[in-house]
């Protein structure tokens, strides 16, 4: 049985401090799962639905780090940064993304 750290109706509250002052406050749901996806611990509602969108990008980029892809294809810290970023699609950002594709010998259709 999963252990609840907070009631199902109560989310975690996270505060970002700057110079001792609260800059922003965020509500969060959290769940710790085993390898089979069973919830072991939770705070808030582990069954709630949400869109993670850009928040997942750094985790997706971990695959390039963990598999040696960065070294294998000579990718730079700037390349890794664009993999982790949510960006506006500026010319500089597009060039960086196309550079990654070029270095990895991939077509733009792979995006």
**Low-confidence parts lasting 5 or more residues at pLDDT below 50?**
none
What is the number of helical segments per DSSP (H or I, 4+ residues)?
A: 4
Helix content: 25-40%
The ordered string of helix (H) and strand (E) elements is: EEEEEHHHH
Query: Number of domains in the coordinates?
Result: 2
Over all CA atoms, what is the radius of gyration?
A: 19 Å
Percentage of residues in strands: 15-25%
**Roughly what is the average pLDDT, rounded to an integer?**
88
Give a short account of the largest sheet.
3 strands, mixed
Amino- and carboxy-terminal Cα gap? 41 Å
SS-derived structural category: alpha+beta
Instruction: Strand order, main sheet: write it out.
Output: 1-5-4
Shape: extended
Number of separate strands:
5
Detailed description of the structure:
It is extended and about 50 Å long. Strands 1-5-4 form a three-stranded mixed beta sheet, with no helix packed on it. It has a two-stranded antiparallel sheet with strand order 2-3. The protein has two domains: 3-43, no CATH class; 53-110, no CATH class. The chain is built from four helices and five strands; from the N terminus they run E-E-E-E-E-H-H-H-H. The model has no long low-confidence stretch (mean pLDDT 88). It has 111 residues and is α+β, with helices and mostly antiparallel strands. Helix 3 (77-84) packs across helix 4. It has helices spanning 57-66, 69-72, 77-84, 91-103, and strands spanning 3-4, 12-18, 21-28, 30-33, 39-43.
């Amino acid at each position: 049985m999963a252990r609840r750290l907070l009631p199902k109706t109560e989310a975690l509250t996270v505060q970002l401090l700057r110079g001792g002052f609260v800059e922003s406050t965020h509500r969060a749901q959290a769940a710790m799962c085993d390898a089979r996806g069973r919830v072991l611990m939770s705070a808030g509602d582990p069954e709630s639905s949400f869109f993670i969108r850009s928040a997942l990008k750094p985790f997706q980029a971990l695959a390039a780090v963990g598999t040696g892809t960065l070294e294998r294809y000579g990718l730079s810290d700037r390349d890794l940064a664009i993999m982790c970023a949510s960006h506006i699609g500026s010319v500089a950002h597009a060039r960086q993304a196309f550079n990654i594709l070029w270095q990895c010998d991939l077509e733009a259709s792979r995006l």
